[in-house]
Design goal:
heterodimer; A: Folate-binding fold; two-stranded antiparallel ribbon; 37% strand; B: alpha+beta; FAD/NAD(P)-binding domain; 6 domains; 7-stranded mixed sheet
Chain lengths: 90, 986
């Protein structure tokens, strides 16, 4: 079971969160083409390794947070609030 | 004489007390401190079960949790538990055990013929044999396989016992309580760390339990640890999984050693432990050697024989032979000899041993450079055939016990769960845990440090280091056991006896799944060269013991076949659980409804008193209909619906999701959330809103009211309330953080009730104060505030039923009072409460969509709501809703249907397909919702139909092949009643 350090609440079990997916994919500007929206809704990489992802602390503070997680090892290197920046390790 | 094989002295069992137990119906005696296996052996019973595939007779190979063979059914009736390892089952008074996988009896088993047929049952035989003819699979092969497969029988009745789950945090978790584990726990605890020590056995001590000379140290360690307040000692607890982020799972067998748990006590407890640091002191497991007959009852690992003698005071045989490749196993031989058991010979594959002198002193004959090529005896060993490794000098040896040692494998399972690499040790011919990935370290035999004194020292260092890693300074030391000469000495890797002159008997590498070395070679020959492929093809190591005693032997056989090193071939992946876990422990208290909340509206008691029949919708309990007179079927539903159409009814709609939205940008936020516009909604008005998902499909709907310039109240469907809130939070926090709009669910804070029917206004005029309800002052979609019976209420003039209707909301605590006041006010008009069924009937008549139509696969156009898609401005789903596939005019669209036959005899069913003729199987669409109509006196429904609205007036058939029903229907508008919406405006 993952332990996720919510920036608002501290370390909590994974079961308190809902997972959404890649947090680097952002909603396109309203005027964007259908293809851009299509990618936003459907197209995702499936990386082995570092992944910045959305987790919603649904049974806690109800904030969407960013988590830098390694999909192969489950290591979590960083967490942040929704609007803060997280960089993938190079 | 009872217990003929019990030694006259020695061991840790309490000889002053006797325990009675039964095995296959026969009564036996044992002592407290026995396992079922040790007690059976004490009584001279060594045939304990039949094997999985060949039904070969089997006994106990081990004396611990790694046991592959001695699996029994424990207990009777609802408590019957299959596949229990006799080697870890603690004996208790009245224990009932049965052997498994035999028919009609353990002694004589019909299916043992499988062993003779084995050349037709090679590895992969399922895949090869049961292929053709295809039609045979379901009728012949599968039932056959199902009957033949599996071992014990699970109880059919509900488990009468209770289980629970426990959560724990600690600085240092120590797994295993041998010399290394005790020392680690002591060192960590001495520095002030919070320590949990988990031991799978019922006694703490591991290997220390075999040596009376170590008892003083063991006792002192256990007592000291027990007295420390920050140390938790947990015997009977197996750590079964090491998961990410240093979370470990463990099962504590609280009541397994009792006939049944005492009142209010649980049977087992599942622990989830979050440990900052972990010390794995899990010891090592002896492994077997592959040779013909290595599975017969009486063949046992050397360490197991030593354990039965020294811990349980049981002679596992009268005359033992040993077959070994290492010096360590000599200690077992010496222990047997010292206990008075005749040791016929130690057959050692090596040319020399450092223990030769000691063996000589004890009078134990050595056969160096020799191997065992056959075992005589069926249900029990009678002798062995020995020869020199060059094949010469074949001789036989009489014995009733054969003790085998192929070396020791550190128990690396938990370390391996963390994905720590396993490193090959040439010296030990075994895999050791490599560089840790998580915050863990191994100590003692678990990392190849053998011998009590060395392991204790290693454990103490590991415990201190673990504590230090969590921020504690290591403290003063404690006495370690005196050094000894027992350390793991020379070993020659030796896996299988092969060569010319063999009798062709089976050499097992996996006793539980009946996998032989020949099966492994066959897998290789057929191309399954990778260890994971060979594993799956042969089922090697796939049994519940996960190949703890022979896994690496099979790998060695595969490596030899490939011509590769064992290091290169590698072990198959270890996965949780280390040992089998019962479903009860996993489920814990989460059985039945457990702690899942039941949501009741504030009027629940009133509904109950009025004969409400409830339906669970999500967590909510909602009244389906009310009956006190024994009405059945449609009667109460039609009665309630008629009241609404002809007079007035009241319905509890508190379960609708309610979200309060406020802030300067509340209007913009809602404009983006809904397909239609809310910024233009005047204060004091409500508007129906439609919400899409970003992919363009309809997500949810409901009315939203503007309570103030910057204050809205949304409603959602009952089912989607939580999802909508999460959807809003995502967009507010992630997509549009620039919008200043705050919102919160107020579903539980407000009670809501719908008052509907031609006399709805009259009813409210009788009870609502402070609000002008006249049609001109309070038209359709108006909202306002007033009082009912002194309670504040919000009034919304919205309608789901299609009648003149109002929804009244009041703070939850006033719910029943307001509800009663309205009923009293409507009594003169014949007001009736109506439930979910009548609500659904009314909305289908009116043609309002609900769950069956909003199924996530329909668009606004499909539902005839394209006018709600605003032309200007952004909203969720706007772009993708315009995709060609979603705007295609051939998509099924919403229509109404009406049964042509006016009697109620031919009913419509949701899920029926619409077809052009009675015998057609070309589906033109499907029926989503149906009801009997009170207004049309007919079966009606809603449906999704290709070309839909264009086919109005056409006749089709609603086919429901599951019940062989076909009903002729006419396609109509979805609005079966009042399409002009005159009633709601009346």
């Amino acid at each position: 079971m993952h332990r996720i350090s919510c920036p608002f609440c501290g370390a909590r079990d994974e079961i308190e969160f809902h997972y959404r997916g890649d947090a680097t994919v952002l909603r396109p500007a309203p005027g964007a083409e259908a293809e851009v929206f299509y990618d936003y809704v459907y197209t995702r990489d499936n990386p082995m390794g570092w992944h910045i992802e959305w987790w919603h602390h649904v049974s806690g503070c109800r904030q969407w947070i960013k988590v830098l997680r390694n999909t192969a090892t489950h290591e979590i290197k960083a967490v942040s609030k929704a609007q803060d920046k997280i960089e993938k390790p190079r | 004489m009872t217990q003929p094989m019990r030694l006259s002295s020695g061991g840790r069992v309490d000889r002053t007390r006797r325990i009675e137990f039964r095995f296959d119906g026969q009564s036996f005696e044992g002592h407290p401190g026995d396992t079922l296996a040790s007690a059976l052996l004490a009584n001279g019973v060594r045939l304990m079960g039949r094997s999985f595939k060949y039904h070969r007779p089997r006994g106990a190979l081990t004396a611990g949790p790694e046991e592959p063979s001695a699996l029994v059914e424990l207990r009777l009736g609802a408590r019957r538990e299959p596949n229990t390892r006799a080697t870890v089952a603690e004996l208790f008074d009245g224990l009932e055990a049965k052997s498994q996988n035999r028919f009609p009896s353990l002694e004589f088993d019909i299916a043992a013929i499988n062993s003779r047929l084995s050349r037709f049952l090679p590895a992969g035989f399922y895949y090869k044999t049961f292929m053709w003819p295809a039609a045979f699979w379901e009728k012949v092969y599968e039932p056959l396989i199902r009957r033949a497969a599996g071992l014990g029988r699970a109880a059919a009745e509900p488990d009468p016992d209770e289980y629970e789950s426990m959560h724990a945090h600690c600085d240092v978790l120590v797994v295993g309580s041998g010399a290394a584990g005790l020392a680690a726990a002591r060192a960590a605890a001495a520095s002030g760390a919070r320590v949990i020590l988990a031991e799978q056995d019922f006694e703490l001590g591991g290997g220390l339990l075999l040596d009376p000379a170590r008892e003083a140290w063991r006792t002192e360690m256990v007592l000291t640890l027990a007295a420390m307040s920050d140390v938790k000692l947990l015997p009977r607890m197996t750590v079964v999984g090491f998961y990410e982020h240093n979370v470990l799972g463990a099962v504590e067998r609280v009541g397994d050693h009792l006939a049944e748990p005492p009142p209010y006590k649980v049977r087992q407890r599942f622990w989830t432990i979050r440990a900052k640091q972990v010390v794995l002191a899990t010891g090592a497991t002896e492994r077997l050697i592959a040779f013909p007959g290595n599975d017969k009852p009486g063949v046992m690992l050397a360490s197991a024989a030593e354990t039965y003698v020294r811990r349980f005071g049981v002679a596992p045989g009268s005359r033992a032979a040993f077959f070994v490749n290492n010096d360590w196993a000599y200690y077992a031989a010496f222990a047997l000899k010292q206990a008075g058991i005749d040791v016929a010979a130690i057959v050692d594959v090596r040319a020399e041993t450092a223990k030769a002198v000691a063996a000589h002193h004890l009078g134990i004959p050595l056969s160096l450079g020799c191997e065992i090529v056959d075992v005589q005896g069926g249900k029990s060993v009678r002798g062995v055939t020995v020869r020199k490794r060059d094949g010469s000098g074949v001789s036989s040896l009489e014995c009733d016990l054969l003790c085998v040692s192929g070396g020791h494998d550190p128990a690396v399972h938990l370390a391996s769960h963390t994905r720590a690499p396993l490193i090959w040790s040439r010296e030990l011919a075994a895999f050791l845990p490599g560089k840790p990935v998580q915050a863990e370290r191994s100590a003692g035999a678990a990392r190849g440090v053998f011998g009590i004194a060395a392991a204790a020292r290693d454990g103490a260092e590991a415990g201190a280091a673990a504590a230090e890693a969590t921020g504690f300074k290591s403290a003063a030391g404690f006495a370690l056991p005196a050094p000894d000469d027992a350390h793991h000495t020379s070993l020659e890797p030796f896996w299988e006896v092969r060569g010319p002159g063999m009798n062709g008997g089976k050499s097992f590498v996996d006793l539980q799944n009946d996998v032989t070395s020949a099966d492994i070679r066959l897998a290789h020959q057929e191309g399954y060269e990778h260890v994971e492929h060979a594993k799956r093809y042969t089922t090697h190591t796939m049994a519940t013991d996960q190949g703890k005693t022979g896994g690496i032997v099979g790998v060695a056989v595969l490596a030899a076949a490939r011509g590769d090193s064992i290091e290169k071939v590698g072990l198959p992946t270890y996965r949780p659980y280390v040992t089998p876990v019962t479903w009860g422990a996993v489920a814990g208290r989460e059985v039945g409804k457990h702690l899942v909340p039941t949501r009741r509206t504030p009027m629940h008691q009133w509904h109950l008193r009025r004969g409400g029949v409830f339906l669970e919708t999500g967590l909510w309990l909602r009244p389906l209909y009310y009956t006190t007179t024994g009405e059945t079927g449609w009667e109460p539903i039609l009665r309630e619906a008629r009241a609404v159409r002809r007079a007035v009814g009241i319905c509890d709609v508190s379960t609708l999701g309610k979200i309060d939205v406020q802030g300067p940008d509340a209007a913009v936020f809602l404009d983006r959330l809904y397909t239609n516009t809310f910024s233009t909604l005047p204060v004091g008005k409500a508007r129906y809103g439609l919400m899409l998902r970003e992919d363009g499909m309809v997500f949810d709907d409901g009315t939203t009211s503007r309570l103030g310039e910057q204050h809205y109240l949304m409603t959602t469907t009952t089912a989607k309330a939580a999802e909508v809130l999460e959807h809003m939070e995502y967009h507010a926090q992630v997509a549009w953080p620039e919008l200043d709009a705050q919102f919160s669910t107020v579903t539980d804070q407000w009670v809501q009730m719908s008052v509907a029917g031609p006399r709805a206004r009259d009813t409210l005029l009788n009870c609502v104060a402070g609000l002008d309800l006249s049609n001109s002052a309070f038209p359709f979609m108006a909202i306002g505030a007033g009082e009912v019976d002194g309670c504040p209420v919000r009034v919304f003039r919205v309608s789901f039923s299609g009648e003149l209707a109002y929804e009244i909301a009041t703070p939850a605590g006033y719910g029943e009072r307001v509800w009663r006041a309205i009923i009293e006010a409507g009594a003169a008009f014949g007001i009736l409460p109506y439930g979910l069924e009548a609500l659904s009937l009314l909305r289908v008549e009116k043609g309002h969509v609900a769950g069956p139509e909003l199924n996530g696969q329909t668009t606004a156009r499909d539902l005839g709501m394209e006018k709600m898609l605003k032309k200007q401005g952004d909203y969720i789903g706007r772009v993708l809703a315009e995709r060609p596939g979603l705007t295609d005019s051939r998509r099924p669209r919403l229509v109404g249907i009406r049964a042509v036959d006016p009697s109620f005899e031919k009913r419509l069913r949701g899920g029926a397909h619409l077809v052009a003729s009675r015998d057609s199987i070309d589906s033109l669409g499907w029926v989503t919702s149906v009801t009997r109509s009170v207004e049309l006196e007919n079966w009606i429904g809603l449906a999704m139909l290709k070309r839909g609205p264009d086919d109005k007036g056409k006749r089709l058939y609603a086919a429901y092949p599951l019940k062989n029903e076909t009903v002729e229907v006419e396609i109509t508008s979805p609005h079966h009643i009042d399409p002009e919406n005159a009633r709601v405006r009346a």
